[in-house]
Amino acid sequence: MSRRTIAWLLLLGTAGSLYLFENNAGTLSVLLCAALPPLLGLVFLAAGGKTAAEAVLPGTVEKGREITGKLSVQNGGWLPIPNLQISWTCRNEHTGQTLSGTHTLSLGPRGRAELPFQAVFHQCGRVRFALTGAETGDLFGLFHRRLTLTGSWETTVLPELFAPEVRLLAVDMAAAESQNDSQTRPGGDPGEIFAIREYVPGDPVRQIHWKLSEKTGKTMLRQFGLPIVAPLLLIFDPAGGDPTVTDALTEIVCSLIEALSAQGVAFDVAWTDGETGEAVVEPVLTPEDAGPLMGRILALPPAGPFPAMGACPYAHVIAAAAQAPAWLGRINGGGRINVLLPRALGMAEGRQQDGTILFTFSPEDYPRELARMEV
C-alpha cells in the first residue's frame, strides 16, 4: 500500500469520525469530498486492458554508441488511461550487463504515445529490450492495477574487429591430407578434384586443366574439393571472465574467424552450450560461413567452462579462454595447441609443461599484442 493510499485512508477515517460525532451537513460535505473523487476515479482502473506496445530499435550499433529506440504505446479502449507506468530492461545477453528504466504517461481514448529511450553498452553482443511490467492507476495515484503488457526486441552491439596476421606452420596442416572432401560442394582443396567443367570467364586461370583442354579443343576447368573435416579448431571459452574479458575474447575470436576464412583456411569453431554444458562445434568451410557464425557467437549467453573433448582429429587448436583449461594438453594426439589467456592470470608465455603454447593479452591492448601470430 502506497503512502498516498495510507494518507487518504487516514483522511477518510477522520472525515468519517467527524460526521459520526457531529452528524450535520458540513461534516457530511467533508466526508463526501474526501471519499467521492478517489472512488469515482476507480473507473479508470478498468482501462488499459487493450493496451499494446511496439518498440523500434536499430539493427546494429557500434560499441559505446547510444542505442536510441522508440517505444510506441497504443490504448485500444474507449476509456482514457490517466496514469500508465511501463518498466523495461535492456540486457546484453552475451555479457549479462543489464540496464533498466521506467516511463510514466497518459493516454486518451484510442490514444497513442511514442516514448524515446536510450541505452549505452561498452561490450559487444546481442542486446534484448524487453517490457518487464506495466500498471495503471487513478488520477490521484491511490489505486493501481497491473496490466499484461509484454514484448521483446533485439539489436546487436558490433565487435570492433582487428586484422591479425595468422601464420599456420606447415607441419600443423599435415592432418589435412587425410581428411574427407564434400561430395556436393566445390571448395579450395587442390589435392582433391570435385568436378570438371567448361571454363567460364572469371574463373581462376590456375584451375584450368590444360591437358584435357588440348584433347577436347575446349577450355576445361578443375573444381577443387571442399574439406569436410577441418585441420584447425578454434575454441571460444569465456567462462569465468568478467564482461570486459568476455568482450575481448569475443572480438579476438571473431577477428580470427574473419582472418582465417579470408585466407581460405577451413576450420571449426567450438563453444559450450549454455543449456546442456556440452561442446558445440560448427564448421567454417568458406568465407560466406564466417558472418552468420559470428552472429551466433555474439548471441551466446554466459555458459560454463568448455568441456574436455578428449581425442579429436585436429592438427592445430587455438583456444581463446578466460581461465586456463587443465585439459588442453590432452585434446589431441600431438597437434600444436595454442592458448590465448588474459595477462592478469599471471601465467608465463611460451611452451608449457603440457606442450601447449601460451599467448597472453590485456583486454585494453589485444589488437596490438595479437596483431601477428605464428601458431
Q: What is the mean predicted local confidence, pLDDT?
A: 81
Compressed to H and E, one letter per element, the order equals HHEEEEEEEEEEEHEEHEEHEEEEHE
β-sheet strand percentage:
35-45%
What is the CA-atom radius of gyration, in angstroms? Answer: 32 Å
Q: What does the main sheet amount to? A: 7 strands, mixed
Global morphology: elongated
- Report, as a whole number of angstroms, the end-to-end distance: 65 Å
Which helices and strands appear, and what pairs or packs with what?
Elements: H1 3-22, H2 25-41, E1 51-56, E2 60-62, E3 66-75, E4 81-92, E5 98-107, E6 112-120, E7 125-137, E8 144-147, E9 152-158, E10 165-167, E11 189-198, H3 210-216, E12 220-225, E13 232-237, H4 243-262, E14 267-272, E15 279-284, H5 290-298, E16 316-321, E17 336-342, E18 350-351, E19 357-361, H6 366-369, E20 372-374
Parallel strand pairs: 2-9, 10-20, 13-14, 13-16, 16-17, 17-19
Antiparallel strand pairs: 1-3, 3-6, 4-5, 4-7, 7-8, 7-9, 11-12, 14-15, 18-19
Helix pairs in contact: 1-2, 4-5
Folded structure, characterized:
This protein has about 375 residues and is of the alpha/beta class. It has four domains: about 5-45; about 45-160, Immunoglobulin-like, CATH 2.60.40.10; about 165-170 and about 230-375, Rossmann fold (3-Layer(aba) Sandwich); about 190-225, no CATH class. About 20% of the residues lie in helices and about 35% in strands. It has helices at about 5-20, 25-40, 210-215, 245-260, 290-300, 365-370, and strands spanning about 50-55, 60, 65-75, 80-90, 100-105, 110-120, 125-135, 145, 150-160, 165, 190-200, 220-225, 230-235, 265-270, 280-285, 315-320, 335-340, 350, 355-360, 370-375. Strands 15-14-13-16-17-19-18 form a seven-stranded mixed sheet, with helices on one face. Strands 2, 4, 5, 7, 8 and 9 form a six-stranded mixed sheet that branches. A three-stranded antiparallel sheet has the order 1-3-6, with no helix packed on it. α4 (about 245-260) links the parallel β13 (about 230-235) and β14. The longest helix has 20 residues, at about 5-20. The model is unreliable at about 170-190 (pLDDT under 50).
